Amino acid sequence: MRPLTEEETRVMFEKIAKYIGENLQLLVDRPDGTYCFRLHNDRVYYVSEKIMKLAANISGDKLVSLGTCFGKFTKTHKFRLHITALDYLAPYAKGFGVAAKSTQDCRKVDPMAIVVFHQADIGEYVRHEETLT
């Protein structure tokens, strides 16, 4: 487990900034402590510094994961967010959705058609599926 390089940090922060904008600083400096991002086996983990210091006693080859997996770097060095990061990004999100139709189609679509998939609600729907009416 190692800190991210400057290039890795830049690529990851650019991707996260697409979803939460300037609230990126709020992920690192939280009221309940300082959190950081660490790289292990091409995966980026979001972990508190307190837990990270405790895990320093475990060798890297024995360590499976630490903290919450935010995403991973592909072989082409692009960053992909994982769904496990959604709980941390949703409170700061500036519109967590993906367009289902093009702009031209949106102008002439009927009022009941789906235009945007709101991804932040998907996890909650799955967790509370049996209680929904």
Automatic annotation (TrEMBL):
Question: Which Gene3D superfamilies does the UniProt entry name for this protein?
Answer: 3.10.450.220
Please name the InterPro entries in this protein's record: NIP7_N, Nip7_N_euk, UPF0113_PUA
Which positions, given as ranges, span the membrane? none
Spell out the PROSITE patterns in the cross-references: PUA
60S ribosome subunit biogenesis protein NIP7 pre-PUA domain location, by residue?
Answer: 1-83
- Coiled coil stretches, renumbered: none
Task: Check the record and name the SUPFAM superfamilies matching this protein.
Answer: Pre-PUA domain
**What's the name of the protein?**
Nucleolar pre-rRNA processing protein NIP7
